[in-house]
Every structure is written in C-alpha cells, then in structure tokens.
From TrEMBL:
It comes from Cupriavidus pauculus. Residues 58-368 form the Dihydroxy-acid/6-phosphogluconate dehydratase N-terminal domain. This is Dihydroxy-acid dehydratase. InterPro entries: Dihydro-acid_dehy_C, DiOHA_6PGluconate_deHydtase_CS, ILV_EDD_C, ILV_EDD_N, IlvD/EDD_N, Sugar_Degrad_Dehydratases. Residues 380-573 form the Dihydroxy-acid/6-phosphogluconate dehydratase C-terminal domain. It holds the Pfam family ILVD_EDD_N. SUPFAM superfamilies: IlvD/EDD N-terminal domain-like (SSF143975), LeuD/IlvD-like (SSF52016). GO terms for molecular function: hydro-lyase activity; iron-sulfur cluster binding; metal ion binding. NCBIfam families: PRK06131.1.
Length: 593
C-alpha cells in the first residue's frame, strides 16, 4: 500500500466514509483538502481533552447549552446538562455540549424578538458546523425554544427539545404570586396608587421564587406545550418545574432518546409535518396560549416550507375550547398543571381534534403516547370539553380595512364588555410618543376611546416588542378603569390580559393602513364577526398616505441592517425571508381546518 493510500495515523485511507455517509466524529470534516488528515487532526485535538478512541467511536449527540448569567430562566442548565449527558452515556452515545447565544426577555434590548432570528441562525449553523448525529436543544425562556426549533428545522438532523421548566410560585402577604401576570397586576395597582412603594418592593422579591421560566401560560409555557404537541419532546416534557426531580428525569430520558434517534436517523422533517403543526395549533387554542405562539409557529413552519393559514386557525378556534385553567385566562400556575398530569391530561381531552398518527421523537405516534400515559385521574386544572373555561379557542383572527393581512386578539383574556365596541381613536405615533403622553392629565381620553399605537411592528421598533400591552392612561387608572380597547402592530406578553388587538398586518412602518389613522377617527371592533374596521374611506386613506408618505426604517451596518432588510411580517413569523425553506410546500392545515 502506498503512503498515499494511508491515513497519517496508519489506518487505510478508504476507512474515511464519503462525506454524505459519515457519522459521529467523522461528520462534517473541516476542509483541509485531505479528509484523512482532517479526521486525524480532529481526533488529535479532542484527545487533548482526554477522550479515547472507544469514546470517539460512539454516536455523537450535541447538547445546546444556553446557560447564561443573564438568563435566570435557564438557571438550572448545569443540572440539566449533567442529566442529559448521563442519559446519552447510558444509551451508548457520546455527549458533546456546546454554547449558543441565550436570550432572556428582560435582558434583551430593544426586545428579545429582535434577537430570536440571530439565535436561530447560531443554532442552525453550529449544528451544521460541528459533528453530531443528533442534537438536544435546551431552551425555555420565551424566544429560545422557537429559535432552537427554527434552527434545528433548517439544520435537518435528528433533534429533540428539552425545556428548562417553569419557576416555582411565591407568596406575597399570604397571596400566591408568580411571574408575570401578577407582575403586571401589581404594577397596575401601584400605578393606580392602590399600593405604596414599600409593598411593590415586597412584591418584587416574591414574583420569581426560583430559577425557571414564567409560571403562568405566557410564551415560555405556551412554547413548552407546543413543543410537546409537535412531538419534539419526550412525553411529559412540557410541564415539570425547573427545580424538580421530574425535570431532571425528563433530561435524562431526553439524552437517552437522542441516541435512539441518532441510530434510527429519526430526522426532524419526519416529526415537523403538517399534522404536527395542526396539532400544535389545536393545543395553542386549547391552552389559552400566548399570542406570540402563533408568530413562532408560523416561523417554525416556514422553515419546513409551510404557511400557517390564519383563517383556518380562526375556524379551528370556533370548535376548540380553552380547557386549561391557567393564568392569565384562568387561575392556576404551571406547577399545578404538572401535578394534574401535564400535557397527557390535556391531549387526552383533545383527542378527537388531534391527528393521532403524527410521529413523535420517541418513534411512536402522538396517539400511542396518549394511550401509554394511562387513563388519567381526577383533577381541576384541565377542564373536560363539556365544561371549558372559555367556549372557543383563546385566539381570534380579525380582518378589515385596518388589518388587510390580519390581526389577532386573545379573546380569552379580554373583557367581554369590550369585544363588540366602537370608539374614537386616540393615536400614539410610536413608543416614544406613548411614553411622553400616556400619563399626562391633559390627555384627551375616556374609557370608551380606543388607544392606537403605531410603529411597534417587525420593522417599526424594530423587532416587534411586547409593547402592545399599552398601559391604561394614569388618569383613567386612578378612576378605576381596568380595561380599554388597544390596537397596535406590536406583540404582547403571553402573561398580559385585556382587550388588546395585536399584530396588525401590514405594520405602520411599511405603510399599512395603521400608519394613516388619526386622532378622532372611529374604529369598530367586533370579535363576534372577526372584524376590525376603520371608518375612513379608501380615498381619504390614499390622500393621507400621499400627504405624509411612510419612510421605511433602514440601518447603516451590522445585524440591524440585516434585520431591517430581511424581516418579514407577523403572518409569516417575523423570520428573515432568506431563512424560510427554499420551496413552499403548502398551507397548514391544507384542508381548511
Ligand atoms: Fe423567561 Fe418569562 S422571562 S420565561
């Protein structure tokens, strides 16, 4: 054998599998122009960390480590990684954890949504760049799970989601509290001068009682439930709180399952099918999930080449009641949901509405997993379909001349008195205008008016911040007003409540009709007929557009430039246009729901 037929370490060169067939540590070799040398060098470096050839022969499972001192929602990351590694080793794999960026809601300026796509690109590219046969995605805080699912969907290898888990609830003067519905409630009481500075400081110590994600049905809990409904977690993976033994056991099982997925080449495209997305839409409606959930689902589906059909989502909502009694639509917290059996209890109740043949990461179908979870037990967190906490799905989709591309309202968290309402527009041109004027005593506003906030959409702010929860003007709050109709092109935290119309598409910053609303215009909202109407003629809107043309925001350099040039609208998930799948495969659901 000539020296050219051998590896530098003496092994025959033909032992190097062709790139497409390579597995484990031999996958995705660095390009040095000599694949044998590339593997030789790679092994030399990893052996510097003390690995043996026997270890390096195993299937490699990557673990995405999103621990960060800035992200207390991921504060249990070391324990989770430990347990995932144990699971991988028990199943005969080789665990390799690696970092990606981590995004926390309160530590991300201007808003975490601005960074979600960056995190998804980081996730996708590091999965592609490094050798792994499967990947465990560990996320929890609002944007991290969607970012990871988007990135993994594009990377295409076997992937499994591990949720960090919810925080525990705290206690303020005998009242149970948890982030973040109670954060907003107490802050509203402070603004209305019902409680003083000492009490609000006490509350601040109790709202987040441990590491973990928000304890109500906010975006984090919503995405945890959606991940399980999509079949992307082990059964029961959504609900265990962050600091419990159950959460650690889920982590170990996730590691074990990842090795099986690697061996069986259970790639993500076999899990993220139209049936799985439709199941996730059902679950989003039935849990009274965050409105952000639909934006993230649209982005994840877009990575697989599917468009979420908002009209169909609305039709599905009419026969999908809200069953989960969690704040802000109900009374309980995530740990109660876990004690009530978690997602198995909900899915069992939703069974007639689900695609039971959808495959999950276990290699079994969703229907099989529901059966395996047993018959259930008496509990009061998941209602039977005959006695829902809200008769329709949590989210309704609105259309009209103010939102030709659609808008949404979380009807289960809205004031029933305001869901059929017409009123005078009180307009704020952007977030700064809002901050400057909302609390002024001379603001011309009554409880019957409709607050309109412009330029907080995907390009407007940019990043579509959760500023759609416009505060009640202080003078109305002081007078005891608890809700008022609010409309914007922004988002709202899933932990918020009120009669709030969001995601108005197209947004004001790209010249949508919202840009041309003026003080005193009349707006009609009818949730029953799913309409949002601006009582201004098309001719007048065109005249206003010509009078004050909209200039789209731009940036000189960096990520902001990329963001503003490539971000799409809310109905497409606020993803970058170049990150969507190259070919559109159809709508979800394709049957009209
Ligand atoms: Fe992380 Fe709420 S801030 S889940």
């Amino acid at each position: 054998m000539s020296s050219e037929d051998q590896h530098p370490d003496g092994a025959p060169r033909h032992d190097i599998a062709p790139e497409a067939a390579a597995t484990g540590i031999s996958k995705g070799l660095t390009h040095y122009g000599d694949r044998g040398f590339s593997l030789f060098l790679r092994k030399a470096f990893i052996k510097g960390a003390g690995y043996t050839d026997a270890a390096l022969d195993r299937p490699v499972v990557g673990i995405v480590n999103t621990g960060s001192a800035y992200n207390p929602c991921h504060g249990n990351m070391p324990q989770l990684i430990d347990a995932v590694r144990r699971g991988i080793m028990l199943a005969g794999g080789l665990p390799m954890d690696f970092p990606t960026i981590s995004v926390h809601e309160s530590f991300s300026a201007p808003t975490s949504m601005y960074l979600r796509n960056l995190m998804s690109m980081d996730t996708e590219e590091m999965i592609r760049a490094q050798p792994m046969d499967a990947v465990v995605l560990i996320g929890g805080c609002d944007k991290t799970v969607p970012a990871q699912l988007m990135g993994a969907a594009s990377a295409g290898i076997p992937a499994i989601q591990l949720i960090t888990g919810s925080m525990l609830t705290g206690s303020h003067r005998g009242e149970r509290v948890g982030a973040c519905t109670d954060c907003r409630r107490y802050w509203g009481r402070f603004r209305a001068e019902e409680i003083d500075a000492d009490e609000i400081a006490d509350v601040n110590n109790q709202l987040v009682a441990s590491v973990g994600t928000c304890s109500v049905m906010g975006t984090a809990s919503t995405m945890a439930c959606i991940a399980e409904a999509l079949g992307m977690t082990v059964p029961g993976g959504a609900s265990p709180p962050a600091v419990t033994a159950d959460r650690i056991r889920v982590a170990e099982q996730t590691g074990e399952q990842a090795v099986r997925m690697a061996r069986e080449r259970l790639t993500i495209d076999r899990i993220l099918t139209p049936a799985a997305f439709e199941n996730a839409m059902r679950v989003l409606l039935a849990i009274g999930g965050s409105t952000n959930g639909i934006v993230h689902l649209a982005a994840i589906a877009g990575r697989m080449g599917y468009d979420i059909d908002l009209a169909a989502l609305d039709r599905m909502g009419r026969d999908t009641p809200v069953l989960l009694d969690l704040k802000p639509s109900g009374d309980h917290y995530m740990e109660d949901f876990h004690h009530a059996g978690g997602m198995a209890t909900l899915l069992r109740e939703l069974k007639p509405l689900l695609h039971l043949d959808a495959l999950t990461v276990t290699g079994r179908t969703l229907g099989e997993e529901i059966e395996r979870a047993g018959p259930g037990f008496a509990q009061d967190v998941v209602r039977p379909r005959a006695h829902p906490i809200y008769p329709q799905g949590g989210i309704a989709v609105l259309r009209g001349n103010l939102a030709p591309g659609g808008a949404i309202i979380k009807q289960s968290a809205a004031d029933p008195r305001l869901m059929e309402h017409a009123g005078r527009a009180v307009v704020f041109e952007d977030a700064e205008d809002l901050a400057n004027r909302i609390d002024r005593d001379d603001l011309d506003v009554t409880a019957d008016d409709i607050l309109v906030l412009k330029r907080i959409g995907p390009k407007g702010a940019p990043g579509m911040p959760e500023a759609g929860y416009i505060p009640i003007p202080r003078k109305l709050a002081r007078a005891g007003v608890k809700d008022i109709v609010r409309i914007s092109d922004g988002r709202m935290s899933g932990t918020a409540f009120g009669t709030i119309v969001l995601h108005v598409t197209p947004e004001a910053a790209v010249g949508g009709p919202l840009a041309h609303v003026r003080d005193g215009d009349r707006i009609s909202l009818s949730v029953a007929s799913r309409t949002l109407h601006l009582d201004v003629s098309d001719a007048e809107l065109a005249r206003r557009a010509a009078e004050r043309p909209v200039v789209e925001p731009t940036a000189e350099r960096g990520y902001r430039k990329l963001f503003l040039s490539a971000v799409n609208q809310a109905d497409q998930g606020v993803d970058f246009d170049f990150l969507r799948a190259a070919h559109t495969r159809g709508k979800v659901p394709n049957s009209g729901g």
